[in-house]
Amino acid sequence: MNQIKFNNTQITPSKVICIGRNYVEHIEELGNETPDTMVVFNKPNSAITDMLQFVSEDTRFEGEICFLIQNKRIAGIGFGLDLTKADIQNKLKQKGLPWERAKAFNHSAVLGEFVSFNGDIRQLRMELYINDDLVQFADYELMIYKPLDMLSEIDNFMSFEDGDIVMSGTPKGVGNYKIGDKFVGKVYEGERLLIESTWTVQ
C-alpha cells in the first residue's frame, strides 16, 4: 500500500476523495456546466505517489489544497496534484460514463508532505509555480464548497478512515506539462507558509 508523510511519520490512506468543479473560473475555463450538487469522486490508494511523472501529452496537472482526515476531522494539510488524462475524460463525459480511467490511474494523486493544522481554515490559500511562474492561485473565499461542507457531504454516504485525503478542487490555470518542469506548491494560512512541496517531472 502507498503511503504519505504526515509530521515526518509514514501513514497509509485508504483512499483519496476528490471534489470536482469547486471553483467558478476553472469550470468556465474547461467549458463545463456548474453542478447543482457537489461533485465527488475517488482515487484509490494505488494512485498515491510522491513523484511527478510524465504520463502523456494530454495529461494535465490540477493543483489543490489537500486535507488529511482523522476522527472525521481535518488533522493535517498539504499540497497535491490531481493528474487528469484530459482527452479520455472528455470522451467519458460526452458518453456520461465514470471518470476512473482519466482520474484514478496509477500515480495520478501526487501528494507532498502533510503537517498538522488547527488554525483558521478561512485564511487558507494556495499557490502553484511551474518553472518559477505563478500558474494557479486560490483561497477559501473562491471555493464554491467550503472544507467543512465537503466533510459533511462526504460523511453522508461514505465512511472516512483515519489517514484519508480530501483534495478540495482546483482553480483556473490547469494545463499540460513536460519532463524537466519544476513544480512548487505552497499552502498558506494568511501570510504564514504552512507547507511547500516541490517536484521535478520525471
Automatic annotation (TrEMBL):
Keyword list, A-Z: Hydrolase, Metal-binding
UniProt domain Fumarylacetoacetase-like C-terminal: residue ranges? 15-178
Query: Per its record, how is this protein called by name?
Result: Fumarylacetoacetate hydrolase family protein
**According to the lineage, what is the superkingdom?**
Bacteria
Q: Which GO terms describe its molecular function?
A: hydrolase activity
Lineage, opening ranks: Bacteria, Pseudomonadati, Campylobacterota, Epsilonproteobacteria, Campylobacterales
Give a single Pfam family match: FAA_hydrolase
SUPFAM superfamilies xrefs:
FAH
